[in-house]
Amino acid sequence: MIDTLQTNVIYCGDNLEVLPKYIPDESVDLVYIDPPFNSSRNYEVFWGEAQERRAFEDRFGDAMTYLDWMRPRIREIHRVLKPTGSFYYHCDWHASHYVKVELDRVFGFDSFVNEIVWHYKRWPAGRHQFQRMHDVILFYSKNRGQHFFSPLLESLTEGTLKRWRGMKSRVDYKDGIRQVTKMTQEASKGTLMDDVWDIPVINSQAKERLGYPTQKPLALLERIISASSNEDEVVLDAFCGCGTTLEASAKHKRRWIGIDFSPTACRVMADRLEKRLGLKEGVDFELRDMPKTPEQLRRMPPFEFQNWAVVALGGIPNKVKVGDYGIDGRLYLADMEKEHRGDFMETLDRWYPIQVKQIDRVGRPDIDKFETAMRRDKRLKGYFIAFGFSQDAIREIKRANTADGLDIVPITVDEILTHERVATSIS
Prior knowledge:
Blueprint: E1 9-12, H1 15-22, E2 28-33, E3 42-47, E4 52-57, H2 63-80, E5 81-91, H3 96-107, E6 112-119, E7 134-141, E8 153-154, H4 158-165, E9 169-174, E10 177-182, E11 191-192, E12 196-198, H5 218-228, E13 234-237, H6 244-251, E14 255-260, H7 263-277, E15 286-288, H8 294-298, H9 302-313, E16 316-317, E17 329-331, H10 334-339, H11 344-349, E18 352-356, H12 364-376, E19 381-386, H13 391-404, E20 407-412, H14 413-418, H15 422-425
Parallel strand pairs: 1-14, 1-15, 2-5, 2-13, 6-12, 13-14, 18-19, 19-20
Antiparallel strand pairs: 3-4, 5-7, 6-7, 8-11, 9-10, 16-17, 17-18
């Protein structure tokens, strides 16, 4: 473990490995996590402008299996929190009651502060139950009574403000005795916020929307950060997803740390900070531990590997991963855009297909299928990325070029990692 905490960093990796390696004891002021719910659902995740998609399962079997997976992570979070620190665990009806018992065991029953209900409206579904329109956020302190908390005020309605302006005092009668309560200027600022928060979900047209199915509103994280941290204090999100916590922290002048297992998610976070806040990677923040070896890439989930390979080549991943007919991404070259700036539709039609295989040796049948896809889309040049190519595959690539005029460029993962051929291949 390192001795000095480094902030404004996105770590790509399992938080159970990252936390003990990089985060010292009692060094974090606030932790918020939105881990996978025990929902037994498959999510199809669409990312950003490129509409990247990855699939993951937040499926753990029964609740006990889920808790077994979360328990060591909760203990690590407890370890890194300062004595004055706070912890917010975002969950829903699937496992919130089980999680509460586990958090009581790790933090102590007396360290439980609030059960916050995030209430929202969405399209109703189901006719055999009350509509599920809320999530639960379990709020704990490292040491009850020592944690920092800044009370938040709920704005008064316009009707209440009008009534307040129209009276100097309030007259009540109690036990037949006339009592006068003075209305102060402070009362006009609002009322203390309670534990039910009405914050809309992100609608399909919202500027902050990235397409991540469990993306939380920026307003929700801003509220948590404002209540439980000060400027320049450290906020940690160990299941960072698309980076809402990081944006809210940076926006409100907190130092921050983000962790996520997905390389695609980590790249989206970095792009989000650059596009929405104007921060520069390598200057204002760092992105660390992205896959750097073939062994790491072999262990990556297939959709993640496809995204990594296409993006590494400078392309845009397909939003459809199943039934893509042999095309995993498209490469639009910068010189094409410059050359055809006056004809946008023609520019869009000038692209090179990218095929990706997470296998050690591509064979001739794989090349044959890619040729078919190229002919179907009327492409004369394309890129094929894999860990290696058989001699039969190389011979077929040469034959297709000579006999059919198809220029297929084979690129290995090693070549992408070392940048030996990629720059010269793309021309």
